[in-house]
Every structure is written in structure tokens, then in C-alpha cells.
Design goal:
alpha/beta; Rossmann fold
Length: 238
């Protein structure tokens, strides 16, 4: 039985093809709003429901995770803030599945890169989120944890990397190695694939000098009630 996901109605053809690809190793790169993590998680939920994997493992940089120490609240509240975006995505994609229950049953796990040594992920679906800010050591630690029957998806925006100098060069060497491997399908999204909102898409186009917002967008009467109704999610069985 297929898993019916409530997908964003404006996903592009490229995004829909990636949702259905059988590739087990993916690198998804592109600007914010191109649904990289959304697509990665949707594919993981499908495989989980079909019992083709035992768990979804979400990994982010240890440097990024340490920054939650500056957030208010106790440790659990801080971790909840880190998990919140994924809880929202699960709620959007599969409203009948309870995110907290998936975490409690370890069907969804979260790991910072600093605690991966000695671990092996068998029968899993690994999402490496914001890979553009991981140094070479972190990336190599992750990819050498991949065990049998395991999928891996790296998601990131190379234009938003905080790495510089030697770190940036070493990071790129690891990525070049991964992209040269026949196991990996590399997908590059562009501004045309931004579906988060029309505003974000126009921003990126304007940033690159490709598009200038038309005057009516700047002069529109905010009291105008003739706006189109919001889009609703559509169901797609994978």
C-alpha cells in the first residue's frame, strides 16, 4: 500500500521526479525554499511506511548544535527548538503520523556530528542537513557511518556556506569525491524551483539581477481583498 503524502501543490516537475527516483544516494543543492529537506524527508517517510528502512536519521553539524546552548530553557526545550522544523514538515507531509511518537520509537533520530564515531547506520535513511557548513572531518565521519541497506541524502545551499580558506577547500574535496561516485545522483535546484513563496522566489531573482518586481507589487493597496485564496496541499501517492 502506497503512502499518501500531502504535497505542496506548486512543486516543480524536477522536484516531483526526485520524489519518485529510486536512487539511494542523493545530493540536493539549491537556494532556500527549493524544498530540499522537504523532499528528503518525504522520501524517508515513504520508505519507513513501506518497511524498507527501520529509521530516519537526521544529522546536522556539531558546531550548529552547540549554538543551541545559548537558547533559553532546559536541555529538552533547546532540543525541541532544533527539532521543530522537522516536526512541522512531518505534520505537513503526513498529518496522521505523530512526530513525537516517531521520535519516541526511534523511527526518527537526531544526531550531531560530534557523536558519530564508532556508530554504524544499517537499514536506515540518513538526511545530512545543511551540509554546506560541515567541515571535511564532519562529512567524512558521516559518510563512513553508512552501513548495509542504508540510503543517504545530503541537503544544502552552497551559496550560504560559512566555511572559508582551508576548511572550504577541504570541504569541496570531499564533495567532489562524493559527486564522482556512481552511487550518487546530484540534483541542483535553481530559483525557478523555489516554492516556499512568491516573495522568496522574487527576492532571489532580484538578487541575481534576473527579475525586477513589477510596480503593482510595490504600490498595491494593502486593503485589496481581491487576492487569490491560499493554495491547499494536494495528495500524491508514491
Amino acid at each position: 500500500m502506497g503512502l499518501t503524502l500531502a504535497l505542496h501543490p506548486e512543486l516543480t516537475d524536477k522536484q516531483r521526479r526526485i520524489l519518485k527516483t529510486r536512487a539511494e544516494c542523493l545530493i540536493l543543492k539549491g537556494p532556500a525554499g527549493t524544498s530540499k529537506t522537504y523532499i528528503a524527508l518525504a522520501r524517508g517517510l515513504k520508505l519507513l511506511q513501506q518497511n524498507l528502512i527501520s529509521r530516519i536519521v537526521i544529522i546536522r553539524s556539531a558546531v550548529e548544535i552547540r549554538s543551541i546552548g545559548f537558547l533559553p530553557g532546559n536541555q529538552q526545550e533547546k532540543m525541541d527548538a532544533y527539532k521543530a522544523p522537522y516536526a512541522g514538515l512531518v505534520a505537513q507531509l503526513s498529518p496522521k503520523r505523530n512526530f513525537n511518537a516517531l521520535v519516541a520509537s526511534k523511527e526518527i533520530e537526531f544526531h550531531p556530528t560530534s557523536f558519530l564515531r564508532g556508530m554504524t547506520f544499517d537499514d536506515a535513511y540518513i538526511i545530512v542537513d545543511e551540509y554546506q557548513n560541515m567541515n571535511a572531518h564532519e562529512l567524512e565521519t558521516i559518510v563512513t557511518r553508512v552501513g548495509d541497506s542504508t540510503h543517504i541524502v545530503l541537503c544544502g545551499d552552497t551559496d550560504q556556506s560559512d566555511l572559508v580558506g582551508t576548511e572550504a577547500k577541504e570541504h569541496q574535496q570531499i564533495m567532489d569525491t562524493l559527486e564522482s561516485m556512481p552511487e550518487f545522483l546530484v540534483v541542483e535546484f535553481t530559483e525557478e524551483d523555489i516554492v516556499r513563496s512568491g516573495f522568496v522566489k522574487r527576492y532571489y531573482l532580484a538578487k541575481r539581477g534576473i527579475f525586477t518586481p513589477p510596480a503593482f507589487l510595490l504600490k498595491a493597496d494593502i486593503s485589496d481583498q481581491s487576492r487569490s485564496p491560499p493554495h491547499h496541499a494536494e495528495a500524491l501517492t508514491l
